[in-house]
Amino acid sequence: MSFLQDIPILSILLLVPLLGFIVILCLPKHRAGWLKTAAVITTLIPLALSLWLYADYDNKHGGEGYDESAAWLQIPINKETATNADTEMVFSFQYALGLDGLSLPLLLLTGIVTAMAALAAFHVKKRWKAFFSWFLLLEFGMLGVFLARDVFLFFIFFEITLVATYFLIGIWGYYNKEKAANRFLIYNGLGSAIMLIAFVMLVNTAGFRIEETAAGAYQYIYSGSYADIAANMADPNAFVNLPAEATGGVNPFQMSDGMMWTVFILLLVAFGIKLPIFPFHTWMLKVHQEAPPSVVMIHSGVLLKMGAYGLIRFGLFLFPEQAREWAGVLAVLGVVNLLYGAILAFRQNEFKLVLAYSSISHMGIVLIGLAAFNEIGLQGAIFQLVSHGLISALLFLIVGSLYERTGTTELTELGGLARSMPFMSGVLLAAGLASLGLPGLSGFVGEFLSLLGLFESMRWVTAVAVLGIILTAVYVLRSVLKMTFGPQKETFAALKDARFIEALPMIVLLAFIVLLGCYPSALTDTVDFSVDGFMKLLLATRSGG
Amino acid sequence: MDTYTNIAWVIPLLPLAGFLVITALGRGFRAASVWVGSALSLASFVLSLLVLIERLKPNAVDYNNGFDWIRIGDYTLTIGFEVTNLTALMLVVVTLVGFLVNVYSAGYMKDDERITVFYGYVSLFSFSMLGLVLSDNMLSFYLFWELVGVCSFLLVGFWYARPAARAAAKKAFIVTRIGDAGLFLAILLLFWYMPEHSLSFTMIESVFDHQGGTITAGITTLIALLIFLGAVGKSGQFPLHVWLPDAMEGPTPISALIHAATMVAAGVFLVARTFDIFQASEAAMTTVAYVGAFTAIFAATIALAQNDMKRILAYSTISQLGFMMLALGLGSWTAGIFHLFTHAFFKALLFLGAGSVIHAVHTQNIQEMGGLGKSMRVTAWTFAIGALALSGIPPLSGFWSKDAILTVALEQNPLLFVVGLAAAFCTALYMTRLFVLVFLGKPKAAKASIAGAKESPAVMTAPLIALAALAVIAGFVETPWNGWFASWLSDEAGASHGSALAIVLSIAAGMLGIVSGWLLFGKRRERSGAGFAERMPGLVKLAENKYYIDEGYEAVFVKGLRGLGTALAAFDKYVIGGAVKLAGVCANAAGKLALRLQNGQVQTYSLAAVLGIVVIVIAIIGRRMLS
């Protein structure tokens, strides 16, 4: 499809929600139907485009055809600090978008979950225009996070998601919505601040590049480009080949060991808050409990994954040696997340909190996969991200529909719902089984690969982690069966099962869960190139250094 | 050549198609679901039979096929299918019992409003079970292993509105999952220790067969024990047996299919499939044998004191699975599989017979029943055949297979032989008690349903007759004089070695059990065995309460987990939440402090500015001086 090569498809994909945002702004605010239709159609376009990209993706070449970049910001720096008066010094930030086996599945996940959440947003009863504007802005931010290939650009998209989510929770949430929104913003703001510090340190060290200008002079560029940073991190000796007058006689790549560790730990904390890693998890409990269902679908389905994505993209890919040395720490954190989340999920009586702790538990599997530090584990971690994104989106979709009918999601007040709502109860059970890692559904693959990967290097830690598969079954079945099985409560006898518009997103999400569970190669083959390349790079640097 | 063997992979797909069609049709198509389910299970049975016939030819070649499931770098995980003599045998057992249960359920579940869901689940189960049987490696075995587990869960909880069914379904899933965790770890171990990371059964055989491999003795034992943990969970062996009696909350045809004939035997099948690992480890074999023997006698004694018709049969199943494990642990996997084969028929028969009774009288309490032999002749006669087969009375099938196990035990380990003999005695005793109380004498409870009980319809009695015929003849494939079955199964020219002593003692144990059962419960029918209970009240009470193992688990594990959960919840709320609050308070205080600086007095601002400049100057000078 060579004729498509020149079309900036990534930019189109990214800008569609922004366009939709503008369209929504132009629509009259009392036309709920128009607003909703516009929003749903807008979310379907990135979904269709990301599906097409996924199908077209050539895993042999890692999607190299999809790099779009343009100069964005050039900030000159005061020359007096330069050693050579002829040289120009600039901060350079690019509008750089890219795609690889790591970001593509998450991009598609974003497309799916957002479109389904838009369909499910029937629960919005007020201020439709504002809701869908923020909603589309949120999608814009999420797509940007996964596409951005410049740390500054990444940071900006990351912040956009924060602001949009803040308003979505604060205005359309349940009783304690303001408190939940504030806690969300403060905690994540803190994480962003730490991330920004790490990025600034990166730009000023690994982002450094020297270019020869047309006049023959040299230009020192402090770049936010991920490609530059990654290249410098991978090969710190690149500057050795430059003439002495270019570098001022010394290797300008000044990233000491201590600096590397500092940046790595800052990144771990920044993205760890988002993931969330124990003990930084308390903020997301409130969010799960108070945010409106379609927003939790996105929050739990995609936003948490941004933490893991950042951790892999910046923490793992840029600092493989540090990450490898801390593999044990990551593994233990992962197991703590897994078991701590599972035991607390068992203890909750509010279904939304069960799911919140369940998310903590499942993100533990991601850490376990990363800690494995081999291809299998890394694949498992990424699989778990996508799988959990789909499963938790489905679970919160059902929670939203249930709450609309029952007015509660307290386990003690529910029971026997399978009688009046067989379809929704069946989907809930299927989602629960996916969550507890039943083979044939996507949850199993991520769990299996992560644990299989970790087992190579850390057997005892893995053996402890396997307890998690028992505990997960315990809390999932306890909560799901309490709601759907058992004698029917009088008050719920007259409830209606899912309408078509509710059933549709449930079926779509479940279909993807089954597809990935039965045919995991659909995902692993796509991821393979990026992971394979990373591992080879790692092995090469290890043997070289 | 091997036409049918090469398309054996179609066998599980037929019921899968059934499941999909039934689910897609929805609840309106009641008759269609019965027909689709039954027809497709018949088709898979016919195909399985054709495969088996091909396998009966001498020197039949094993057939193997599969596809890559996940490829990561240089690693490949596959899903594969394999037809060997053992798998062909299992195919026929599963599809035959499956077909008969499909037919039977047309009568048993006729009035249930969710009969389509039932047939859908049963088809899904058949698919999973057949996939498990055909799997050629540990990973795809595990996938199907979990799927049969979830089907069992769904069917145990089929009548979901009953709190007991909900509890039983949950228990079945979680208790077997404890075993599954062991199997999971065994797979991880195998993956990293096997050459080329292969998980295939063929490879396992060749690696562990020649013990000089790269895998150390310790790891071999560990792998074997972890696999056995999985088998213990699935096959209801002590100490993970507690879920199986509770699983009787499911519809009775399910108890026959899943919890007697097929799925619970999957643990035995698993050990047989990975038998070379066990043989490479003395400790593992001993463990299997002793756990099996203990379970056999332990469950049989509980069965003596139960009053629920299905629970007696459930404990009997646990006990018989113990016999199979005993055979495996003693090194004779063919004897174990032989007992699995015969047991599948007579135990399915007993469960379906019990279902026929329950269907007629609407109670499961045998103390209320009595005299049903007159009104339900077909059920009574076929049940009697099943009971005699289970009790090990020649020439019925159970005798031959139990005798094969006892013969091995006598050769290898006299202690286990005695235990087995005692279990065989108990078996005959509790089956006699069951039969006498249900079918003979007079009804004990004044219930119209018992006095006026009618024989079940032909759609239910026909499967009983078919299974009764099999319970009579299935044992003749292997007798002390003819070792055809074992040598066919193991591809080795096995010498049949009967032991007159074992035969005599085994028959004696069975007969003695029946006679004492008759004396205890038959002669003084009106007192329904109360005499025994009077004489040894403590022991009976202990067995009646299943040795209080459920209560023990509840106190230790369930309460323990709950307590841990409470403790961690408090930790989460007060320690972590408290730390977050503290950080908030500190930030607030810092903010207030900064706020105080913003007091609107220019003097204060300039003082701060001067102080700041001083600090900067000192910093710059200091840095210059240092460098």
UniProtKB/TrEMBL annotation, chain A:
The chain crosses the membrane at residues 6-27, 34-55, 102-124, 131-148, 154-175, 184-203, 259-281, 302-320, 326-346, 353-373, 385-403, 423-445, 457-477, 498-522. GO terms for cellular component: plasma membrane. Residues 148-472 form the NADH:quinone oxidoreductase/Mrp antiporter transmembrane domain. InterPro entries: NADH_Q_OxRdtase_chainM/4, NADH_UbQ_OxRdtase, ND/Mrp_TM. One of its GO terms (biological process) is electron transport coupled proton transport. It is a multi-pass membrane protein. Keywords: Membrane, Transmembrane, Transmembrane helix. GO terms for molecular function: NADH dehydrogenase (ubiquinone) activity; NADH dehydrogenase activity; ubiquinone binding. The keyword Cell inner membrane does not apply. Pfam families: Proton_antipo_M. Its main location: membrane. It is found in: Cell membrane; Membrane. The keyword 4Fe-4S does not apply. Belongs to the complex I subunit 4 family. NCBIfam families: NDH_I_M (TIGR01972). PANTHER family: NADH-UBIQUINONE OXIDOREDUCTASE CHAIN 4 (PTHR43507). This is NADH-quinone oxidoreductase subunit M. The lineage of its organism: Bacteria, Bacillati, Bacillota, Bacilli, Bacillales.
From TrEMBL, chain B:
It is a multi-pass membrane protein. It is found in: Cell membrane; Membrane. The chain crosses the membrane at residues 6-25, 32-53, 86-104, 116-135, 141-161, 173-194, 214-233, 254-275, 287-305, 312-331, 337-358, 378-396, 416-438, 458-477, 497-521, 602-622. GO terms for molecular function: NADH dehydrogenase (ubiquinone) activity; NADH dehydrogenase activity. One of its GO terms (cellular component) is plasma membrane. It holds the Pfam family Proton_antipo_M. Keywords: Membrane, Transmembrane, Transmembrane helix. GO terms for biological process: ATP synthesis coupled electron transport; electron transport coupled proton transport. Residues 135-420 form the NADH:quinone oxidoreductase/Mrp antiporter transmembrane domain. InterPro entries: NADHpl_OxRdtase_5_subgr, ND/Mrp_TM, NU5C-like, Proton_antipo_N. Residues 69-119 form the NADH-Ubiquinone oxidoreductase (complex I) chain 5 N-terminal domain. Belongs to the CPA3 antiporters (TC 2.A.63) subunit A family. This is NADH-quinone oxidoreductase subunit L.
